[in-house]
């Protein structure tokens, strides 16, 4: 079981380099992460984007890209299409979003999945490494679906369970998060949880468990119990997969890493390998960590497939 | 400046008048909390419920030698009705949920005709103490309103601004949160946030800056915001986080408590008197600060005039 980011970084060194299609690395912070990941032996990058812009930011961070494979392309959608096509044809092991709108990479993945007839939908999973937890917790879908219905949420669960199985968690626990309280009627997010539990019981998601709890208070306190002391909070009660009700909830919760002592790694699990989705505001270390995560996931996926 | 929970307790104490707290159907645990607040010279508890049981429990606490009142009322809902009556007749200054169930309490106090609403809408504000410096931040609505519309969000914001004033926040900076910082017609929260931001720009909230939509990374981190091309005095220095709906608000508050280990207290704004609600994730250690906050709101709250 892969349980911490330190473990991920170690494995990435061991299993790399993997071929990474980098979609428009045209920001210096981002290019620096590509350089460092290459130096660390994680990746062999293929840079797709505006040649001049890539050269400029590479110079800024002291990265000599003359010996790195480059595909010049200015059109943003074409950049995404090229990288995703390479992922699906097996020319690269993974892809990462640089300075292109996220929706473009989603669009290209949806097209390739449909062409491959996999039936897979796309969703973003954001993994959290919390100190002293020694297990990943994740939020999903944090990037694609604005207000998923229970069917879309079922697909999101499937993608997350797939990833956790790859990471070596045989039976991940899932919570369908909701703002449901004892008053104020029944929220749609809570209703969906009931439907999804029925689907889980019917075996629709494979080996996993949907827990009863729908909020953090439920994870850590018994019904009717009041929090006594912060020392009593037992983080092992935190499920591995937190299914969020909406994009607003997912995005706002998962990016609290900017505030708290936790680290986040976000990716889309395509049928052919990981697509990394760093936030436009992420800094070099975080992007590099995301690349390491991608290397490990790609490696595990290939191991399973071959 | 009021920067910590300790400051709240000290300020409430200094401002004098001990507040009368109407507390229906109290259990031993509530009585212990009330006793601590009375010992801190913040309140005089008026406990409504099974008289003999309350009397016996009081004797186990320092409250026994302090000022208190017991009103005998066997029935739980009857106790709540009586407590609300006292509030309406100005015989009590603060209402505590006590042993009344969440649903019964919230439904009764927020009832349009018979309840305690004064604002167009009541809302819940979480107050967090930052870990690294003496500053309080507010998040709202984290408990009461499920799916507020734009006019409702406006009231929720105005309610929070009243509290910001009581806590001496000068020119409060508000982040109207959404999933992204761009206005996207497909994401309703970004539209509401943009409109509130525009209203603030036109001075409709007074000396307040509302920035929105802001995603949480831009709200929390000035550098992150600048990488997204967003420059504002609000980013990285937010006083009030306005959440788009209850899924976000309720879960955000809990995540900050349980994973972020941040100390939190809360209060209901928009009612004729401050309310002390039983939220399971307000730690026992912070209940006296929560009562002190209610006392301070009553003392300073212009809305009660």
Short summary:
The complex is a heterodimer of chains A (306) and B (305). Chain A is α/β, with parallel strands linked by helices.
Keywords:
heterodimer, A: 306 residues, alpha/beta, eleven-stranded mixed beta sheet, 10 helices, 11 strands, 42% helix, globular, B: 305 residues, six-stranded mixed beta sheet, elongated
Q: Stretches of chain B where pLDDT falls below 50 for ≥5 residues?
A: none
Number of helices of chain B: 11
Helix content of chain A: 40-55%
- What composes the largest sheet of chain A? 11 strands, mixed
Overall geometry of chain B comes to: elongated
Structural class of chain B, please?
alpha/beta
Gyration radius of chain B (Cα, Å) is 20 Å
Mean pLDDT of chain A: 95
Outline the fold blueprint.
The complex is a heterodimer of chains A (306) and B (305).
Chain A: H1 5-15, E1 18-23, H2 28-39, E2 43-49, H3 51-60, E3 69-72, H4 76-89, E4 94-97, H5 102-116, E5 124-129, E6 137-140, H6 150-166, E7 173-176, H7 188-201, E8 209-210, H8 216-220, E9 241-243, H9 247-254, E10 263-270, E11 273-276, H10 284-305
Parallel strand pairs in A: 1-2, 1-4, 2-3, 4-11, 6-9, 7-8, 7-9
Antiparallel strand pairs in A: 5-6, 5-10, 10-11
Helix pairs in contact in A: 1-10, 2-3, 2-10, 4-5
Chain B: H1 5-14, E1 19-24, H2 28-39, E2 43-49, H3 51-59, E3 69-72, H4 76-88, E4 94-96, H5 102-109, E5 123-129, E6 136-140, H6 150-166, E7 173-177, H7 188-201, E8 209-214, H8 216-220, H9 222-227, E9 240-242, H10 246-258, E10 263-269, E11 275-276, H11 287-300
Parallel strand pairs in B: 1-2, 1-4, 2-3, 4-11, 6-9, 7-8, 7-9
Antiparallel strand pairs in B: 5-6, 5-10
Helix pairs in contact in B: 1-11, 2-11
């Amino acid at each position: 079981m892969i349980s911490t980011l330190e473990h991920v970084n170690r494995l990435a060194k061991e299993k790399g380099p993997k071929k990474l299609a980098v979609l428009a690395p045209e920001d210096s912070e981002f290019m620096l992460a590509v350089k460092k990941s290459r130096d660390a032996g994680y990746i062999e990058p293929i840079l797709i984007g505006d040649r001049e812009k890539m050269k400029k930011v590479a110079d800024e961070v002291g990265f000599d890209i003359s010996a790195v494979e480059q595909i010049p392309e200015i059109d943003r959608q074409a950049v995404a299409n090229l990288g995703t096509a390479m992922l699906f044809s097996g020319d690269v092991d993974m892809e990462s979003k640089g300075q292109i709108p996220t929706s473009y990479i989603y669009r290209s993945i949806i097209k390739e999945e449909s062409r491959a007839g996999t039936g897979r939908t796309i969703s973003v999973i954001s993994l959290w490494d919390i100190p002293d937890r020694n297990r990943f917790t994740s939020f999903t879908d944090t990037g694609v679906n604005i207000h998923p219905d229970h069917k879309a949420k079922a697909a999101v669960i499937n993608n997350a369970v797939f990833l956790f199985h790859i990471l070596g968690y045989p039976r991940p626990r899932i919570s369908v998060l909701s703002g449901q309280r004892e008053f104020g009627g029944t929220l749609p997010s809570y209703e969906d949880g009931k439907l999804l539990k029925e689907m889980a019981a019917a075996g629709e998601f494979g080996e996993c468990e949907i827990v009863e709890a729908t909020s953090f208070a439920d994870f850590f306190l018994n019904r009717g119990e009041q929090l006594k002391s912060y020392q009593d909070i037992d983080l092992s009660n935190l499920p591995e997969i937190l299914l969020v009700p909406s994009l607003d909830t997912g995005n706002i919760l998962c990016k609290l890493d900017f505030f708290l002592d936790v680290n986040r790694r976000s990716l889309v699990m395509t049928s052919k390998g990981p697509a990394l989705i760093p936030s436009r505001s992420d800094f070099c270390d975080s992007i590099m960590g995301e690349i390491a995560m991608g290397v490990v996931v790609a490696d595990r996926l290939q191991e399973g497939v071959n | 400046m009021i920067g910590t929970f300790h400051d709240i307790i000290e300020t409430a104490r200094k401002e004098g008048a001990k507040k009368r707290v109407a507390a229906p159907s109290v259990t031993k645990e509530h009585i212990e909390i009330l006793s601590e607040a009375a010992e801190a010279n913040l309140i005089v508890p008026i406990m409504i419920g099974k008289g003999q049981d309350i009397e016996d429990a009081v004797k186990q606490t320092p409250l026994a030698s302090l000022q208190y009142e017991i009103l005998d009322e066997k029935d739980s809902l009857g106790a709540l009705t009586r407590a609300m009556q006292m509030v309406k007749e100005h015989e009590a200054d603060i209402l505590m949920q006590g042993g009344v169930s969440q649903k019964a309490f919230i439904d009764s106090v927020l009832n349009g005709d018979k309840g305690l609403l004064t604002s167009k809408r009541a809302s819940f504000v979480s107050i967090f103490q930052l870990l690294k410096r003496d500053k309080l931040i507010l998040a709202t609505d984290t408990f009461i309103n499920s799916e507020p519309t734009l006019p409702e969000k406006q009231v929720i914001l105005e309610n929070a601004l009243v509290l910001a004033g009581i806590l001496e926040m000068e020119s409060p900076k508000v982040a109207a949160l959404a999933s992204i910082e761009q206005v996207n017609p497909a994401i309703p929260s970004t539209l509401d946030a943009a409109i509130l931001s525009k209203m603030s720009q036109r001075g409709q909230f007074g000396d307040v800056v509302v920035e929105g939509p802001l995603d949480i990374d831009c709200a929390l981190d000035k550098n992150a915001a600048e990488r997204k091309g967003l420059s504002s005095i609000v980013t990285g220095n937010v006083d009030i986080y306005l959440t788009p709906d209850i899924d976000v608000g309720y879960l955000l508050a809990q995540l900050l408590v349980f994973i972020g280990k941040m100390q939190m207290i809360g209060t209901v704004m928009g009612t004729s008197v401050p309310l002390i609600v039983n939220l399971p994730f307000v730690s026992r250690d912070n209940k006296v600060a929560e009562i002190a906050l209610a006392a301070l709101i009553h003392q300073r709250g212009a809305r009660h005039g």
